[in-house]
Amino acid sequence: NICDINKLNFKLFDKNIYTLFQENIRKLNNLLHDYKNIAIYGSGAHGNTIITFIDNPEKIKKCFDLDVRKQGMYLQNSSIIIQEPNIKNFKDLEAIIIAAPLYEKEIIRSLREKGYKEDIITTEKELKK
């Protein structure tokens, strides 16, 4: 079977998606502006993408992930160590960005149960803290 790509209703570039993405990055940078010590929760594609696009990636001090195979490793192209999410590792953090949208509610509940009291920034539907 051979398929002609010109007959597919497929866009290689969608300006609306690009514009929305840029707007969300701008919102995230605005939210992060006043923080100095931030963590990312989630070391998958979403977490690795965030450090690529934010204005001040040096503000990201830690990354959390429940996957013990990832703990002790680094986020891609960074010196950010992936750690277990626990009260000891929450020390000095001002905000945590949730970069695991499918598990956002469970992660928020778990962070609060483990004693994290500072800001949580969610990314599932829209950026908010």
Q: How is the largest sheet built, in terms of strand order? A: 3-2-1-4-5
Query: Helical element count?
Result: 3
Any idea of the CATH class?
Alpha Beta
What number of domains?
Answer: 1
Q: What overall form do the CA principal axes indicate?
A: globular
CA(first)-CA(last) distance? 49 Å
Provide the CATH superfamily: NAD(P)-binding Rossmann-like Domain
- Write the CATH fold name: Rossmann fold
Give the number of DSSP strands. Answer: 5
Portion in strands = 5-15%
Helix amount = 25-40%
Structural classification: alpha/beta
Average pLDDT confidence is 89
Rg (CA only):
17 Å
CATH architecture assignment: 3-Layer(aba) Sandwich
Q: How would you sum up the major sheet?
A: 5 strands, parallel
Order of helices and strands: HEHEEEHE
Enumerate the spans where pLDDT stays under 50 for 5 or more consecutive residues.
Answer: none
How is the topology of this model organized?
Blueprint: H1 15-32, E1 38-41, H2 45-53, E2 60-64, E3 82-83, E4 95-98, H3 104-113, E5 119-121
Parallel strand pairs: 1-2, 1-4, 2-3, 4-5
Describe the structure.
The chain is an alpha/beta fold. It has one domain (36-129): NAD(P)-binding Rossmann-like Domain (Rossmann fold, 3-Layer(aba) Sandwich). The chain has helices spanning 15-32, 45-53, 104-113, and strands at residues 38-41, 60-64, 82-83, 95-98, 119-121. A five-stranded parallel beta sheet has the order 3-2-1-4-5, with helices on one face. Residues 10-113 form the C-methyltransferase domain.
